[in-house]
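Much of our argument rests on the idea that a fold can be written as discrete symbols. The record that follows shows the chain in one-letter code together with its fold in token form.
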Amino acid sequence: MYFDLLDPAAEKKSRFMKAQNRVAIMLLISFGITIGCSLILTFAHFIFPDIAKNAFGYQLIQTLMYLSYIALPALTFGIISGKKTRSYFTVRRGGGNKAAAFFAALGVIYFAQLVAALLSTLLGAAGFSNLPADETTTDAAVIVLRFISIAVLPAIFEELMMRGIVLGELLPYGKGFAIITSGVLFGFMHMNAVQLPFACIAGIAMALAAVYTGSLRITMLLHFTNNFISVALETMSAFVPEEWELFAEAAVSVLIFVCGAAAAVYLIINKEKKNGVERKALSVRVDEADKVDLRGFSLKNVSPLLYVYSGIAVLMTVFNMFAAGI
């Protein structure tokens, strides 16, 4: 054991495992708070059966609960890591062609939405309804709160958690593992059968954009744009005929796909034009000397705690799917 500690490769692998453990602990804390909030809301429904009839108050409660299980674990991560919290939340300007990276990633995210829509249709045909739509409303206060809770807050706090912390913790040990793992964990975090493949693909796309630009600004904007459009189209259905909403949705999708394809082609053509400048990825530099050699990668390289979290997330996803189908 003493000689292992003197082995640079063993020491790097030890740091690699500890980084995964820190990520897993944060996600498990978030899951625990989520379960606690769900129990509280269930108890509130039992005590106050009409609680959901106050649309604004109910949306506000859900927003505050969301902040408790997303923002709280992220903002207190420094206690787990022993590092200064602001080191994970450096929202620097970044480099590269940010506009092209934005549209290319957004195109991938919209492709992921097609996957989610197909899965939703298949689950619906099987008798499941795992992604219930919010009731439409014309109440201005509720609409504003929904934009804040669905578009603004996730764009900030989910990005700080998943791209700021998870991606930032894993990046020193290799970009490939960090990008894929952070994307998959982003999918698991939603614990929803329809959102899982969508969030995995979108998470990988946003992680790629973050690494390419070296900034969380681009992923925050991506997250906000996707969620904002989704809420806007849903809100539109309360004010216009259904065919108008469908036309707007199709027009937006076509526009994003065209821009995304053009941006992807541009990035591929210009991939060599980096002027020899190595960009930093977020607040953590990916140094060759710190990378763990994953060429012989096996499942043993993954932290047991990440397996525990992933297993719990999958079980909850299945439970939620069947609960929605009852």
